[in-house]
Design brief:
Elements lengths: L1 H30 L4 H13 L3 E4 L6 H12 L2 E6 L11 E5 L5 E5 L9 E7 L6 H13 L1 E4 L2 E4 L4 E5 L13 H4 L4 E4 L6 H9 L6 H6 L11 H11 L4 H15 L13 H4 E3 L3 H17 L7 H5 L2 H5 L4 E2 L7 H15 L7
Parallel strand pairs: 1-8, 1-9, 2-5, 5-8
Antiparallel strand pairs: 3-4, 6-7, 10-11
Helix pairs in contact: 1-2, 1-3, 1-8, 2-11
Length: about 350
């Protein structure tokens, strides 16, 4: 009886949080124009508790978007800029000399908000050295860090990281094992529609970022419940045997595309993929698909829940032959689209 009551409580809570998620998405879309897909994917990642890489040019609103999402979920936000001279300790503490000449140590950006930290944005992560990447990846995995002779927990933190993909000098690209730690890579690009571009340029609402963020509605929920809600979503959303077979075939297609007759124009497909998805990648695919199904008010995964997130979950973790690096983004988009076209979709009962 107690177990049934606990299950009923979990179902009720995730239903309430689905309403919250819809409101977060609606409010974010009102204040960040032309980013509906990116906002939906960010919400999926937050409820799946997955870290995110962001892809996009300068000034497209990545920082503003993350600050608005943080405000809407009622959390705390911190940001750090990657630089070539950054050391791991720079994100843990600041050392300075006080006015009376004594050494002073204060919390760095990673520790400043403590357990209230919800979103940590590492801008241009590939400008920082591998030692910094290593520290951040460990914190992402363990949600804690040793500092000041104690263990500091960061249970509510999700990391977002942006890579400078234009400049190559003094950058340190994330290796495949590091990219695999991120659930998704989400593209944020300037909108194409004239109406949206005019609004961004001429509507004064979007010219004062601090005012825009300050006017976000205060949430009526506790974002520290997200871990519990995420676990409840994973426990309550189901995958049929047909979906399991479909996902296994998608995995095989990333490893052996020729088996599924996958082709890309002017690409030797047998030489294209060096390594397909990792087991972690497939686990993250299912976790995100369950959240997508939940957002769509279902208790089971449909193929569309997988297809809508497949590229963002898979592309950044696939390892391709270096001869294709110059066109990597476009070729991987074609590749994931081909997988979804060629792998048979299960029929729903």
């Amino acid at each position: 009886m107690v177990e049934n009551n606990n299950k009923s409580t979990s179902i009720q809570k995730i239903q309430e949080w689905r309403d919250y998620a819809e409101k977060i998405q609606l409010d974010a879309n009102k204040n960040i124009l032309g980013q509906e897909k990116a906002i939906k994917l960010i919400i999926v990642s937050l409820f799946a508790r997955g870290h995110v890489l962001l892809e996009g040019g300068v000034g497209v609103g990545k920082t503003t978007l993350l600050q608005i999402i943080t405000k809407l979920i009622g959390g705390e936000y911190e940001r750090v800029e990657g630089t070539v001279d950054m050391m791991p300790n720079d994100i843990i503490y600041h050392a300075s000399i006080s006015e009376d000449g004594k050494p002073n140590i204060s919390n760095g950006p990673l520790l400043k908000k403590g357990e209230d930290l919800s979103i940590f944005f590492f801008n241009e992560i590939n400008r920082a050295r591998p030692q910094v990447h290593s520290l951040l990846l460990r914190v992402m995995a363990e949600k804690s860090i040793s500092a000041f002779n104690k263990e500091i927990n960061l249970p509510n933190m999700v990391v977002f990281a942006d890579r400078n993909q234009v400049e190559k000098n003094e950058t340190f690209e994330l290796p495949a094992a590091a990219r695999d730690r991120f659930m998704m890579e989400i593209s944020i690009q300037a909108p194409k529609e004239k109406e949206l571009r005019d609004a961004i340029i001429f509507d004064t609402k979007f010219q004062n970022t601090a005012k825009l963020i300050g006017e976000m509605p205060k949430p009526k929920f506790d974002c520290k419940e997200l871990n519990e809600v995420s676990n409840a979503i994973q426990d309550n959303i189901q995958a049929s045997d047909h979906i399991k077979s479909y996902v296994e075939n998608l995995w095989l297609a990333t490893e052996n595309p020729s088996k599924f007759n996958i082709n890309i124009k002017e690409v030797d497909i047998d030489d294209f993929i060096i390594a397909g998805s990792s087991p972690r990648g497939m686990i993250m695919l299912i976790k995100a698909a369950k959240v997508n199904a939940w957002l769509n008010k279902r208790t089971y995964i449909e193929p569309m829940d997988i297809n809508e997130i497949f590229h963002e979950i898979m592309a950044h973790r696939l390892v391709i032959n270096r001869i294709y690096e110059n066109n990597k983004i476009e070729l991987l988009k074609q590749f994931t689209n081909e997988i979804l076209l060629k792998v048979p979709t299960p029929e729903l009962n």
